[in-house]
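User: I'll paste a sequence; please echo it back and then give the predicted structure.

Assistant: Echoing your sequence first, then the prediction.
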Amino acid sequence: MKQILQSVRAILPEEQIFEREAMKNHITFRVGGEADLFLEIKTKQQLQQLLELFYETKTEYFLLGNGSNLLVGDKGYRGVILHIGTEMSDIEVCGNRILAQAGAMLVKVANMAMNAGLAGMEFASGIPGSIGGGVMMNAGAYGGEMSQIVSLVKGFTKDGTEVSFTREQMEFGYRSSIVKREGIVVTDVELTLKEGDADQIKAEVTRLSEERRAKQPLEYPSAGSTFKRPEGYFAGKLIMDAGLRGYQVGGAQVSEKHCGFVINKGDATAKDIKTLMADVQEKVKAEFGVILEPEVICLGEF
């Protein structure tokens, strides 16, 4: 890591480089140990140079947006975190299109669309992630998903080569896309929306926001929906029907408000959360023969 650090310092100024960074400060579960190296990316040029370096040196790295679908182990991560955040979060409205950099929060992009009288993004107004991550995993809620509104995605391959994908080339699926499968780093997203009535759009955003507050445990740290929806089922109902509402391991709990959420009651460890997730998978499989696949990415040493 010392040798890599020397090369990184030739690309980034010192104020963007953090050693032994506590990951609990960067993921929505609010747990996790230290990353060996944490790099704040401010420009696409910096990102491209780092990707080229890591490809040449076979350095392990993980791309981080808002950390809303990530669980980092208590013993930390022995690699490099590339954080695309507020410095790469510009948003521009051009007619019925929105151009957003990967670090822009979905909530902020949805609000820009609402204020511009553009319809189609209301579903994303409460998703706590960045648009780069949202495109990668084809984020969705309440019947909408990114595949319906994305028209162009730009980014870099693992070796730093610039690429772009139209909606058709993105090969969107349920919580998947070509950029996820091939490890593409998203830098820019173009959305194409429909002109609508600003008051109606605002009313729909308000309705969805109220529904979220009523049904989801937003008062606790979590990663949102913990498991993908199994075909023909709802993960939360399977977990509830398996008798696991309120089930707890240490400070981690299956939410009593919505069984599809695993929450940090305040003093959970990453191991608590991972153990609870495994217990839920085992119980649901034993009761119903259904395998629950996590939406949450586990990273590092537990």
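The radius of gyration is 20 Å. The chain has a mean pLDDT of 96.
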